[in-house]
Amino acid sequence: MAQRITYAGGEFIVADIVADALLDYALTLARRARVDVVHVRTRRIDGSVGRMRLLIGDGMPLASEAKWEESTAIDSHPDDEAAAALIRHRAAAFGRSPTIRLDGEGNGHSDLLSAYDEF
């Protein structure tokens, strides 16, 4: 089926598999004070189908609603599975690589980041 995504004051529809991957990745990024851009296939509220680039992660509100009428659902498409797999791969990569926290805690960079506290 599909889920309605609310993002930056707008709404669009994506396949369930994409919505789940987006929310999981957004949470992974937010926990690490990071952001990333992802590309997804969408159906707009007016019914047109297109592609969208989304900036997701820390400080980027993103919500999904799972219940949609059949007429507003987005048909399953191989691009959705590929996009979801890529998004999940990016999320999994955070478990294999070090990240730098933006708050400076525990990473040895607090002196570098504290210079910004004066602004």
Please, could you describe this protein's structure?
By secondary structure, this protein is an alpha+beta fold. It has one domain (2-118). The protein is 31% helix and 29% strand. The chain is built from three helices and five strands. It has helices at 16-31, 78-93, 110-114, and strands spanning 2-7, 10-15, 35-44, 49-57, 62-65. The protein has a five-stranded antiparallel beta sheet. α1 (16-31) runs parallel beside α2. The chain is globular.
Short description:
The chain is an alpha+beta fold. The chain has helices at 16-31, 78-93, 110-114; strands spanning 2-7, 10-15, 35-44, 49-57, 62-65.
Ordered list of secondary-structure elements with their pairings:
Elements: E1 2-7, E2 10-15, H1 16-31, E3 35-44, E4 49-57, E5 62-65, H2 78-93, H3 110-114
Antiparallel strand pairs: 1-2, 1-5, 2-3, 3-4
